[in-house]
Amino acid sequence: MFENTVLATGYQIATIVGVIIALISVFVVYKSYKGTQIQKKKEKALELAKYYAEVIIPESVFISKLLKNIDINKTYSIAVEKAKLKDFTLEELKSIFKNDYNGIEKMWKEIKFIDIIKTKIECCDSNVDLVKLLEINEKYQNEKYSRNYISILGFIKIIEKDSHSAVHEKTVLQEYKSYQRNLANKLEWFAMNFKEGIADDEVVYQSLHQTYFQIVKCLYFLISSFNDENSKCDKYFTNIIWLYLKWQKNFLNKQLQEQTIK
User: Fold this and answer.
1) Assigned domain for 140 exists
2) 260 and 185 in one domain?
């Protein structure tokens, strides 16, 4: 009887010990898996930061410079900078600009060829023949117009006469129409990786949030124009919007913390 009791007790202890060991093993495996996933998310974030620096930033420079060239009175820039961007809809867009909306819409949709060429030159676009540009500079340097402006005008005249030129007005205008959308699509893919938990956005926030805010503001008209009243439940560029709002909230919270400390 005593032996049976001892055996039973020993069996129970062995079972309990086995269960504990199994639980510890599961916990260790889980911790290891979680640690691996966290590391993978960090590595993916760094990979995306590299893509952002090598692809998105250079392409956004053109849009940023073009905006400065067409938004002469800074109507768009000032309004977007002051506004609390939240919905990224056509309704919100109109509410921000109010009476200026029609002028802003025309500014973005009727981009002039000269503004695109001027921006390409400022960005040192490889498709622009700088040798010819320098020749025009030399020819018109004594004119009453500013050297840069007359150079562009003269350069455009050469382009129009030269059927073999790499730059043509029709081609340039067509390229521009898709340029913004392509940049927005790349930024959407970038943000999607963070929204879906593939990468950890906290890893790159401090390095990228300021330029990200500026790029999104440059693309605000495009994004909001796509999201009219019929697309409230099926919006475009939702990942861009999600990351912008998350980082904006983070930024404002940190500002508040700094003010509290002071």
Assistant:
1) no
2) yes
